[in-house]
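Please check the following for our workbook:

***
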Amino acid sequence: MNTGSTRVIDARVVNVDDLELEHFEQGTRFRSDCVRVGPLVGAKDLGYSYDVVPPGKASCPFHSHRAEEEMFFIVKGRGTLRYGDEKRAVRAGDFICCPTGGPETAHQIINDSGEDLAYISVSTMMPAEVCEYPDSKKIGAFGGGKDDRVRHLTHVHQAVDYWKDEA
């Protein structure tokens, strides 16, 4: 039993009402108030985030993951899930599974309602990841540690041959 002033168990719990959200905005389509919760509670293998998306916005581009699986839980509000070539309405209480794959598993949650949309996302945290962005025809490669992280995005049509500049 811990007799010190800080209990280990207390470092593993945070209430959604106590989260300090950061404002994010990019152009006219993307906006959210969000926080990465995983680091706050000491997560090692899973990433957790909480996003509040205002009406008419999305928090991120339409994308798929080759290495990381994601799950979303709609906390409040309504919106639309884009998934592959399909769309469907989502609402508070819905769990959404986004397994790994290519464009057929690309996903995005859009708040097309008149009220805030809040959701929790959970993802496996892999050491390396490749993401595809079907709308903008980009590919992103991500990997490495905290201090030597690789983050490279390029358009699909800018690919080079494997042997280019090797001779």
In short: The longest strand covers residues 46-53.
